[in-house]
Design a protein that fits this description.
Chain lengths: 183, 201
């Protein structure tokens, strides 16, 4: 909780700078890219986040990587600051918070769609439209497949969960039978 | 008759009568003799000695009796016996009275004993009735509890069986649906989901 709050502060600080110069979207992309780099290269992540090594040594490694990147200066400065504060391990949280904040600014909402079988384009279009309609926001969807749902789909928007899966219907039916509602 | 004469008079009377009786006997003996003067004289002398001896004996007896106060002794003895008799009579009366009291108390004790026994019998009967009543009540409670326990067990078993049947049915249904579901079913489910989400707005 505390780590998340600190990550949010860093994200807000960078966003305010991005809003001033109008490059907040690019900063978001840079952060996301660096977070993915850390995820894809755990050894790199371990080196720069390990306090056993001196800050100077770790900064040298980070700078060597940043030098080859096309990240904005503010982003580079933020990453170096995180390393100085021994919070570089929380880069994914910072990136996620930054994305959330930029989504709020852009009136974007993200929806996770879990489906038992691949959705057709037509159905996907209808789903985007209806979700945009109920949230009154631009919806960005992330689709995943899960065969354990048997059929149907589940949509998660923040804390809201809309479950239209066959598994949920079976569970509901089972609970109803256990309660004796169909006696 | 003797009681109306004093003791001294009595003594003289006895001595006089004795002497008169002795003289009469001597005269009779003398009159009956006659043959031989010497022989008669000896007999008379013998008689005389005998009478004298007898008279002395009587006098001695009278003196002795008088000196040793035999009469007083026997009188006192008689009084003593009389007193003892009276005391014994009183004691006997007391004992009889005591005996009557004891008999009366014994009767009272018998009555009390009967009453106590009756009371104990009544209390025993009452206690017996109470114990039987409590035992019946407790038995009824136990039977009721057992009935409730059996009912609960049956309900529990029925519920568990129902749960198991539902679980098995749901599992079987899931297997059947998983095998039988088609793309068209998925499309139908997605469309239904979209319609239901639209209704939320």
């Amino acid at each position: 909780m505390t780590g998340s709050k600190i990550s949010k502060r860093y994200a807000k600080a960078l966003l305010s700078l991005g809003q001033e110069d109008g490059n907040y979207a690019a900063y978001g992309e840079n952060l996301k890219e660096f977070a993915e780099l850390c995820t894809d290269n755990p050894e790199f992540s371990k080196v720069i986040g390990n306090p056993v090594f001196s800050v100077d040594d770790r900064k040298k490694v980070l700078n060597a990587v940043l030098a080859k990147s096309s990240f904005a200066d503010y982003v580079k400065n933020l990453l170096q600051l995180l390393l100085d504060q021994n919070r570089i391990g929380g880069i994914e949280d910072v990136s996620a918070n930054y994305t959330r904040l930029t989504d709020e600014i852009s009136n974007i909402i993200r929806a996770d769609i879990i489906t038992a079988r691949p959705l057709k384009d037509e159905a996907m279009g209808k789903l985007d439209a209806v979700l945009a309609k109920i949230t009154s926001k631009t919806v960005k969807t992330n689709v995943e497949e899960d065969e354990s749902l048997i059929g149907g789909l589940v949509v998660k928007i923040g804390d809201l969960v809309l479950d239209g899966s066959v598994r949920a219907q079976l569970e509901g039916l089972k609970e109803s039978l256990k309660r004796g509602e169909y006696n | 008759m003797i009681r109306f004469i004093s003791k001294k008079g009595q003594t003289f009377l006895i001595v006089g009568m004795t002497l008169l009786f002795a003289v009469a006997l001597c005269g009779l003996a003398f009159a009956s003799g006659g043959e031989g003067a010497s022989e008669g004289h000896d007999q008379m002398l013998n008689l005389f000695y005998r009478i004298l001896n007898f008279t002395l004996l009587v006098i001695i007896l009278v003196v002795v009796v008088k000196k040793t106060s035999m009469l007083r002794f026997f009188g006192e003895r008689r009084e003593e016996i009389k007193e003892k008799l009276e005391a014994l009579t009183k004691e006997r009366q007391t004992a009889e009275s005591r005996s009557r009291e004891l008999e009366k108390k014994l009767e009272e004790f018998e009555i009390q004993k009967k009453e106590i026994l009756e009371q104990f019998r009544a209390e025993g009967a009452k206690e017996k009735a109470r114990i039987i009543s409590e035992a019946r009540e407790r038995a009824a409670q136990l039977i009721s509890q057992v009935d409730h326990t059996i009912e609960r067990e049956i309900q529990g078993a029925t519920e568990r069986l129902k749960q198991e049947v539902v679980e098995m049915a749901a599992q079987r249904a899931e297997e059947i649906i998983s095998k039988g579901i088609k793309d068209s079913d998925q499309d139908h489910l997605v469309n239904e989901f979209i319609k239901s989400v639209e209704k939320l707005h």
